[in-house]
Amino acid sequence: MAIDIANASSDMFLPLKAVVGALSVLIKNYDQTADNTDRIKEIEERVDSLGGILASPVGDQDDEEKARRGALRKKLDDMIAKLRLLSEKNKFVKFAKNASHAKTLNSVVQDLATAVTDYQTSIQQGTYENVKKFGEDTRNVYENTKTIGEDTRNVYENTKAIGEDAKNIYRETRRIGEDVQDLIGATELQLLGQLDPVHDAGYQGGHHDTCLPGTRQSVLDWMMQWAENPQDRHVFWLNGLAGTGKSTLAQTFSGMVAQAGTLGASFFCSRDYLNRKEIKNIFPTLAYQLACRYPAFRNEILRVIKRDPSVARNSLILQLKDLIVDPLSSTNISCIIVVDALDECVDNQPASAILSVLGRYVNNLPSVKFFITGRPESRIRTGFRLPLLNPITQIFLLHEVESSDVYNDIRLYLQKKLTAVAKQRSDLDVSDPWPCDQDLMTLTKKSSGLFIFASTLARFIESEHHEPNERLQLIVTQPDNTAYEGVAGIDPLYTQILELAFSGIKDTEVFKNLGRVLGTVILAFNPLSREQIAKILGINVSRIKVILKHLHSVLLVPDEDHKKIRVFHKSFPDFLQDPKRCSNPKFLIDTSTHHRNMAFGCLELLKKLKPNPCNLPNFVMNRDVRGLPELLEDKVGGGTRYACGYWAMHVRFSPLRDISALALIALATKFFKENAIQWIEVMSLENQLESVVHSIHHLFDFLRLLNVFTSDLYHLAENHLRFTRSFFPLIQQSALHIYHSALPLSPKSSMFHSTTLQKEASIMGFHGRPETWGPVIQTIHSGFFSNSATFGHWIAVAQDCEVMICDAITGASRLSLRLENYICAVGGSPDGSILFCGHKNGSVTSWDIQTGGLVHTFSLENEDPVKKISISRDGRFLACGSSDSLVHVLKVTNEGQLTGIWESSSAKEFCWLGLDKHLAIARGVLVQICDIVAGTTLHSLLMADSISAMVYSQDFNELAASLSGFRSTMVIIKPQTGTSTVLFWSLGEWSHFAFSPANEIVCGMKDGRLGVYSISKKCWRHIKHPHTVDFISTLPNKTIVVGSESSGIQLLSLDVRDAPSPQSTLAVAMTTFDQGRIIAVNPLNSDNIELLETSTMSNVFTKRLRYRKNPLNCFLSASLENRLVLCCFPDSQGKFCLELTRFKSHDEEWNVELESAPSAGRLSPAGTCLLTLTMHSESLSADIYMGGIQGHLNSRQRSELIDPTPPSSHLNQKHDSTPTTTTISSLTMLNSHLG
């Protein structure tokens, strides 16, 4: 190119060469970014021509020419600086896209032209020929420069177009940025969705009307003064009786503070909605609303969710701390939080759980206020009286507002409501004003201060289906009734509304349908629409409309068929279900009958379920399905969705003594055979898979009450329960993996292989799947644990200083606590409300399960580690054992407070018996049954060896004890009679055991196997378990909890029928004989004593005794040195005999009758001394017989050993049953024999 040649020329004027070089770079870059190739070539030719003019050399004597070129050099240097500045912009692309840069280029070109012109002028004083020649050259330069300017202007126009393109690119980039922000927002919403909030629980849901303008003004002013005063108390309790307008005031107040910009969040509780009456939903929902309102709070809460995705399922105290307190504290947000109708939440605690945890943290939130409404129920009153909450709570008693103010408010309310009716009804011909003052006064008086009464009156009169004045006269002409107080006051009004709505109707079918519809409305576990009711009951929607047409004064009935029907006030369902209040049987709702009707309707709907009802693609994960709730509503339908969630609860509450129960069982059986898998699929899509487990347990409760556990329905439901729990994580994430994975992996012998797999042609079975269900149902906790216990419907798992509470039905974790002290033992109250922990520092702590808060700490005096905890069946007493063999009994209050009342020493083992005040204590070979209230010992029983562990069967009044010297031997004791049976198991030693509700003893073997002994059938069976058993406990429905350090905590099924029964032996007495063998008396053949190998329990030798023996009361002892065996039996005449015989010989050594029956006896190793122990009513005595081996042991010495009765004044005193000094020598022989 020309410009390249000019630039490369060494003869070119150097400053111009620099300018040309810079222009060359810029123009080359421009050439790469714009489509102006021809124009650039012209610019290059002009520059080349200019370079030729200045290429001629200057002579040494031509000073003027040098000066002229020096001036030109200076100007060109300035241009070089400008061009260098432009070149430092890196690339001409950026330069060309900037209009100001294009102008700069144009300026450089113009400056170049001017400089050349000035140079031309300066040499005009030279020779004419030079001037003429230079003039021509200058003219050429000017023309070329002019052309360059025009070209530059063209470049500027092109650059301007590029700028427009850049603007478009900017707009597109901005739109992409907005899309990215939308994506980030959607991701954040998805994370916030893990809080599982109740979206319609806020005041925006409009569940309640607001106060009419001018009414309740004094109350609202009081509340707003509290809200606006930052120095006022942090908590406001609007306390009012039913019907006094608490929720209406809360709705109005929420709107007012929202308009003022100070409302942070709100939760309106309701017992009509399952998700709005669960206290566990309150704090996550409030946190969700706060996150939506405050960006700073949202950032904090997102960090919490990322750290702990299951934070919404934590205990209340952790929910409050992590979701509300910490984020609000770190962001310094000032707001008001509203919780309405707290009394309508399900809460079994003596003090409201929400208030209990709120009291712990409310002082940490100086800028946050809590507005709470609730009836003055006991738990609400107790909650607000808590020491931490009471000083900071402002209480407003709504039912104690000045009666004149309430009267005027109700009068104004009625006047406005009824005046509006007169204006809206063109067909109403009444006097003006209507209603008159007298009628208003009568209506106000009848309301007796209850706004619910006044609003029900207004709704009754304004019914669009009736003439309002006629209805008004029906009310005002009724005689006054002084019973218009509280709940009873509204009953006559409800009766009148119902009777007027259906007056003159004699058709029983109408009342039958009325009962079905009303029963469904008030008994539904979630509100239903007309469409849903029609599907469940099989009634036409139009008929439901007719039935509900006259009940708009007591029900909130929307015009749209798909919207939910709600009860106007909770007093109406209470009235309909109480025969003492609803005296007309036509309107009385029999609860169990209507639950049965709804159960039938729900099961009929479930028969229509089909696989993959939403037509989802194969293998899709539930979370990847967009708009899933809307899709389910469209494809499954609201009525069927309700049936899926609640059919089992309606079955549970159905009548038991009714032939319809059999029909219900038949329908449920058909459902489990044909549609249960599709039901599980829908529940997975609903994210309610846990409800499948709960529903089947509700069905089990129903069958248990009917005593039909052997039915096909029970086994079908049990199979589906095993199926759901075995594949729970998989099905929870993907409903369609029921067909792709879970069913093909089900055991070959299960019903799913034989029926469902054949029905679903798309399902292919896998090779190598198991033949039957294994014993393991579910793993609750993996890894190490220090202690575990079951109580109520919970499983507690302790590890060092942490304890986790899991749902025993579903296995889901519900609570996690980190305590300050190491946990050595755990237990809990039978109702599952309180957790007890025994600690290494000698303290016992009690914890509220619902809130996760500490209730009380009780410290033992000796400060030894608490190794064991046992709670009485009624939960009133707690026994704890420390490492120094002391047993302490503490009294437990309903709130979990602990008080020490009794203690006993030298106790190795203990457990509570059937009567809650009776405690069994093991001291070596002695078992004492103590009444800890009376402070007496009821029974003392002697065992063949010291006791290592004891458990009690609450249902069958039997005590099982394992003996230290015989780890494969167990004694079953009847505490009331003192009789016992000894069990031998040939398969090895057990480490832990427990009673099942079916009166079976479940033993954990050291090799990991589980032995199950049926006391009624007197036989053993075993269950395979691969790990050593470190903990074992039983649950209802043939389920056990097994703990192992290697496999963690697992739920196992006892209903495993394919395991062979091992050999077992029964005995009423036994003793060790020599290494590896024992001597025992079999109750089935008590004439003989048998020598048995302990490894196999096989018979080695049998010796027949002289007299026929009674196997219920006997003992054995052996002298190994001389192969002697001592037997003590009552003979056929009831006399007790001692028989000494040499084993493996048929010769009888001797026998002797005794004065009283000894409880135990021991031979000395040489066989020359016999010690017998005899229980008396007040004491325990020892008899010592001395004699030779060949002769009778006839020399006797008696010692009184033990007074088994503890001190009568037992409170805070020790119960010491240590033998006296005089008997120590007598016991030495016995103890040495016991080892």
Report what the structure shows.
Keywords: Repeat. The protein has 1235 residues and is α+β, with helices and mostly antiparallel strands. Strands 2-3-4-1-5 form a five-stranded parallel beta sheet. A five-stranded mixed beta sheet has the order 17-18-19-20-49, with no helix packed on it. It has a five-stranded antiparallel beta sheet with strand order 25-26-27-28-36, with no helix packed on it. A hairpin with a 4-residue loop joins strand 23 and strand 24 (936-942). Helix 4 (63-87) packs antiparallel against helix 6 and helix 29 packs antiparallel against helix 30. The protein starts with a helix and ends with a helix.
Break the fold down into its secondary structure elements and pairings.
Elements: H1 2-8, H2 14-33, H3 37-53, H4 63-87, H5 92-96, H6 99-122, H7 128-192, H8 217-228, E1 235-239, H9 246-259, E2 263-268, H10 282-293, H11 295-307, H12 316-331, E3 335-340, H13 353-361, E4 368-374, H14 378-384, E5 393-397, H15 403-424, H16 437-447, H17 451-461, H18 468-476, H19 491-501, H20 508-523, H21 530-537, H22 541-548, E6 555-556, E7 566-567, H23 571-577, H24 591-606, H25 628-635, H26 638-652, H27 660-674, H28 676-685, H29 689-706, H30 712-726, H31 728-733, H32 737-742, H33 751-759, E8 776-781, E9 787-791, E10 794-799, E11 802-807, E12 813-818, E13 823-828, E14 834-839, E15 843-848, E16 854-859, E17 866-871, E18 877-882, E19 887-892, E20 898-904, E21 909-912, E22 918-923, E23 926-931, E24 936-942, E25 947-953, E26 958-963, E27 966-973, E28 980-985, E29 990-995, E30 1000-1005, E31 1010-1014, E32 1019-1023, E33 1031-1035, E34 1039-1044, E35 1048-1053, E36 1064-1067, E37 1069-1074, E38 1077-1081, E39 1088-1093, E40 1099-1104, E41 1115-1119, E42 1124-1130, E43 1136-1142, E44 1148-1154, E45 1160-1163, E46 1169-1175, E47 1180-1186, ...
Parallel strand pairs: 1-4, 1-5, 2-3, 3-4, 20-49
Antiparallel strand pairs: 6-7, 8-35, 9-10, 10-11, 11-12, 13-14, 14-15, 15-16, 17-18, 18-19, 19-20, 21-22, 22-23, 23-24, 25-26, 26-27, 27-28, 28-36, 29-30, 30-31, 31-32, 33-34, 34-35, 37-38, 38-39, 39-40, 41-42, 42-43, 43-44, 45-46, 46-47, 47-48
Helix pairs in contact: 1-2, 1-3, 2-3, 2-4, 3-7, 4-6, 6-7, 8-9, 10-11, 10-12, 11-12, 12-13, 15-16, 15-17, 16-17, 20-24, 21-26, 24-26, 24-27, 26-29, 27-30, 28-29, 29-30
